[in-house]
Every structure is written in C-alpha cells, then in structure tokens.
Amino acid sequence: MASFVLPHIHDSPDGAWGPPQNLPSPSSIPYAPYSKSDKLGRFADWNNTTSTGMTSTYPDGAPRGPGGGRKEVFGSGTGAFAYFHVEDESSFSVVDNNTRGQAGQRGRGGAGGARGRGGGRGGNTGMRQGNQAGQSGRGGGQQRGGGQRRGWRDFDKNARAREASVVISPAWNMLEEVEFHRLSKLRLQVDDPEDVGSYGRLYAYDKNYDRITTKTEKPLQLVDRLKYNVTTSDDPVISNLAQQGAATVYTTDAILSVLMTAPRSAYPWDIVITRTANGLFLDKRDGGAFDSITVNENAADPPAPGEGINSLGRLSLEATFINTNFASQTVLESAPALDMQNPNPFIGGEDENEPVASCAYKYRVYDLGITEEEDVRLCVRTEADAYAPQTKGLVTIRALNEFDTRAPGAGGAPDWRTKLDSQRGAVVATEMKNNSCKLAKWVVQSILAGSEALKLGYVSRANPRDNTRHVVLSAVSVRPTDFAAQLGVALPNGWGIVRSVIDMCMKHPEGKYVLVKDPNKPVIRLYNVPMSTFTAEDDMVEDLPDVAEEE
C-alpha cells in the first residue's frame, strides 16, 4: 500500500499574508481566464467523470468537450474551474416574485382576553379591551408606495412552526402516539342516547333573520348575557351523576366534538384526562383552545400570528365575540320561554340577578360497548341555543364571519356583499374548505344535542379595517344530518376515535394524563403528568368526584 506524504508548506519569512514571492508556479493546472461575472465553482470534485455530464481533461491538462474533442478554453465561465449542474440540486425551485399584491392594510393591534368567570363565563368586554389595548400599534404590513409583493417568501409559509397549546414539561412521560391516518380508519356504530336530565331556559328563534339579505343587513348588537362554559369536573350535575354511577366516561360536547373531528384539525389543542378507579373525566383548561373559535383553520394560507386586526389571535377573539352576540341577538326574549326540567345549574352567588343567555343543557348517556358484556358508557353535556316556535324543537345557532377578503389569510373567500345573494354556493364551498374543522365540530355538537336545525349566520365587518362593528348579512337553516353528509362528517368514525382514546386511557393506572395534538404534525400524543399539573393555574379537578364502584 502506497504511503501518503504530506506536501511541503511554504512559509513567508517576513510574516506577510499569503504565499512567498518566490513560490514556483504550478505546471499541471491549465490556464483559464477569470471574470468578475463568473460564479463560484467547486474547489474539488472527486467524481469528475464523463458519465456525469461534466467535463474532463486530456492528460496534458486541456479540457475535453462533451463529444470527446478538445474544448476551446477562452471566455468567462468556461475554464476548468467552471461549475456544472448535477443531480444534487434537483429539488431546488424558484419562487416568482414579479407580481405585485394589494396595498397593505392599516389596523390597530393588541390583544384582549374574553371575559370569563370561574371556568367559563363568556362575555363581550374582551373585544373592547383588546382594541383599546392595541391602539398604539399598527398591523397589516403597511408599505410606502402602496404595494406589497405577492409571493414574497411564499415558500416559507407552509414551514411556519406553530406553538403548542400547552408547554410540554420534561417531567411528562409520553405513553402513546397516534397518527391521524390511523384515526380516519376507525368505525363504531352507536345507538341513540338516553337522556338523564335537562336544565336551563330557551327562547324562541327569531325567524325574521332567515329573511335578511345583503341589501337589508342588520347591525350586530352588543347583547350582554351570561353564557357559561364550565369544564367537566366543575359541573355539579356531572358530579351527582358520577356519584350515582350513571356512566364511566364524562365530558362535554365541546371536548367530544374535538375528538370526533380530530383528523380535520390543524391548530393545536389539548385535553386533560383524569383516570379514576373506574372512569374517566375529560376536561379543558381554562383559557385554552376550547374557549375560542378558530378562523380559516384549514385554509391553504391561514392567518398568521401577530398584533394586527387580521392576525390569528385577534381573529379568533373576534369570531368568539360574534358568535356570543349573534346567538343572543337572534332569539325573542319577549316570546314565552321554554323551561327545561331543572333550572340552570350554574347560576348562583353574584350571578343570580344578572341576565342569562338562552341556553339548555341536556345530559345524555351513550353506550359505546362493542359487546353486551362490555360496560362503556359515556355521559356528555350538550347545549342548545333556542327552540323553533312551531315545533318546539331544539336549535343550535352559530355564525361564520368575514374580515377582509384582500388580507392575508382570507383563503380566497369571495366578497359576501356581492356574492352571497347571487352565488351562495361559491361562498358556502369556500367556507367548507377554509373552515372544515370548525363546521364539522358545530355539526357534531348539534347532532349530540338532538337539535332539529342548525342556524348559520353570515356576519361581516361594517368596515374591513374596523373589527368592532359588524353587520348580519344573512342567516340560513340546515338540517344537521344533511349538512354532515355535505361536509363528509361520518359519526361512526368519530365514535370510533372516542372509543379508541377511551381504551388507550383505561389501560393505564389511575392518575392524570394530557392528550395533546401536535402543533405542526397530524399526530396526537398521550402524556402521563403529575397530579399537581394545572391545579395552581385553574384549580381544575381539585375535588374530583369519585365514580361509583360497580357491584
């Protein structure tokens, strides 16, 4: 084997930078002219063969052409050091930045929290506080000259990393990881539920809103009504049912709908699961993902985080504000109310004399057992927002919102004022694409509650640059089961996901767990966490009721 001899190093005796002046010129390197316009080539190429399409040289150093003949060495970029493209950069693509976009929007930034009390009272002051808090900032990327380049850094939009809905502590132990494509294959047929109690009071839905058009729009009013969003373990009715052994799993329709539509979700979320002796309690964190409504979650270019009025957080706050007021505005409090079997279980103390929003809570038990020997029952608290004047059936009320069709994150939505009356199908198709997960959750919630109708309102800003004033452009009524078929929502798949999560948690010992949706991947993970987790933050499941022992 030939030995390797290190070459002699020529050192400059006077310490000057560079090689010494008397260094002999290399004789084995061919001459090649150099120009400032030449691109930097490779310093060395150990795979320089004719089979790769690159040039080689004759033994005397002259370059060899592609056809085998001598290649003329003259001109810029044609020498022995020129760079030739090979397959290692085949994945490189160029983004066209020549087109110009619309002018940037000028808005006021800031963040304001929704009003809440003790785990879930919804209100309206958070919207005003959010706008007052951000009056010193500008949002939307204003540019001099009036234009923002469309396509600038488009290649990086899909690579934006979202933050998780909860900080994963190093003390947490990951137990399970399930991809969404596996969840999409699950199926479970479930029979009709058993009603174990109804609470609250409902008002009649105002049918005049079904006749609104874009030419007869109505302003969205600020209706100050209490709307409770209490988590599972803080629900006094569920506590009593757990002591009676009514079921083995307890949750709310908001949490259950997220599980049943998990493969559609793009934004992160987390569910706190407490495993007791013979049951599970599925809870939300106060101030978490379940206390706000998403906007264009499934759009190809969803809203980005920031401080402008069209940022991710501000749009979510705006959508929550719109839904809370739209549901209260579209009911007739002057008409006779429909009282459930029991009064509202959450009214008491300082809230006793304050007006409460129209809402009915139905507690229903579903049998998720696959065989007759299995005893897997799920108790869910469902909600309805109004009743139909003619049939006295339950009605669920929700609202879609339009912010600015020219703003980033609009998802290519058409202008509602010009298209909603004449091309409603195009508007609905765009919303079904951009808000697939949100609409699917609303449909599931209405089916769980047994609502005969789902009222969808179309609410837009009075001025695209002002997120405090809105108008109702239209309202439509759909049957939940029919709309679920249009959205492609399969309830057997949703129940299969729920049963899979239940089995995943029941095989572990008693304790506290957190089911987390990865912020950037279609994956859910189950973590085992200490029992003290989240208790200092929101005092959740501090006095969790015990599930009755099976006889």
UniProtKB/TrEMBL annotation:
mRNA cap-binding component of the eukaryotic translation initiation factor 3 (eIF-3) complex, which is involved in protein synthesis of a specialized repertoire of mRNAs and, together with other initiation factors, stimulates binding of mRNA and methionyl-tRNAi to the 40S ribosome. The eIF-3 complex specifically targets and initiates translation of a subset of mRNAs involved in cell proliferation. In the eIF-3 complex, eif3d specifically recognizes and binds the 7-methylguanosine cap of a subset of mRNAs. GO terms for cellular component: eukaryotic 43S preinitiation complex; eukaryotic 48S preinitiation complex; eukaryotic translation initiation factor 3 complex. This is Eukaryotic translation initiation factor 3 subunit D. Component of the eukaryotic translation initiation factor 3 (eIF-3) complex. GO terms for molecular function: mRNA cap binding; translation initiation factor activity. Residues 126-135 have a biased composition (Low complexity). GO terms for biological process: cap-dependent translational initiation; formation of cytoplasmic translation initiation complex. The keyword Protein biosynthesis applies.
